[in-house]
Amino acid sequence: MFNGSAPLFIETLSIRGGVVNNLEFHQERMYATGVAHHFSPPSWEEIKERLDTDVVLSDPTSLYKCTITYRETIKQISLSKYSTRKIERLIPVYVKDLSWYNFKYANRESFENLKEGLQPNDEIIIVTPDGFISDTSYTNIVIEKSGIYKTPSTPLLKGTQRASLLKKGVIQEAKITLEDIYIPCTIHLINALMPLGTLSLRNTSITQ
To answer: In this predicted model, what pLDDT tens digit does every residue of 120-164 receive, in sequence order?
Structure first.
C-alpha cells in the first residue's frame, strides 16, 4: 500500500469561529499514531503557528475543514469551507481485513478502489466477511432504532466524533450486522465535520 516508504498521516479538523471541535480527541489520535509508528507528531502549538487563523476568524459562521498532513513534521495544511456531501444510496462492500486503515493514513487509494464505478451520490458501507458493518469510506456509522443510538464495535477507524459521542454516553457500541439494518432504522453518518444528525438516511437507501 505504501511502497515500502514511511507512510504519511492526516488529521482533519472541524473549525468554526476559530474553535476546533473535539480537539482533545484529535490530539489523542495523533499521539497514538506516533506511538504506534515510532515517531513524535507535531504539537498543537506547531499546528497553530502554521494555521491561517485570520481566515476562519473573519468568517465566524462558516464551517472550515482543516486537513493536516504530517509525520514527524507538518508536511501540509489545507483549509477550505465545508459543505456536506449529498448521499442517496449506500452500497454494501465486503472487505476481508479491517486492519489496513486503523490509522488515518494520507494514502486513500484503497477507498477509491472500493468505490470504483459508483455514482457521485453513492457511498459504500464496509462489511466484514461474517456480515458485520464497519464504516463508510469517510464516516463512522450510527444506527438509530426506537430512540437508541448504536455504533458498530467493528469500525475501520475510530473517529473523533464517534469518540466524543461515546464518552458523553449519547451512543453505544454494539455488533451490528448488515441484516440488522435492513430492518427499519435511521442511518446517521458522522465524522469530524458532521455531528450526529447532519447526514441521516433511511435504511431503504441501502442496495441489496
So the answer is: 999 999 999 999 999 999 999 999 999 999 999 999 999 999 999
Number of domains observed in the structure of the chain: 2
Q: What are the backbone dihedrals phi and psi of residue 160, each rounded to the nearest 5 degrees, phi first?
A: -75, -35
Q: Are residues 71 and 102 in the same domain?
A: no
User: CA–CA separation, 175 vs 151, rounded Å?
Assistant: 8
Whether residue 201 is contained in a domain is answered as yes
Domain assignment present for 4: no
What does R_g of the chain's alpha carbons equal in angstroms?
Answer: 17
Burial category of 171 from C-beta neighbours within 10 Å (exposed 0-12, middle 13-18, buried 19 and up): buried
**Which pTM value belongs to this model?**
0.94
Cβ atoms of 88 and 206 closer than 8 Å = no
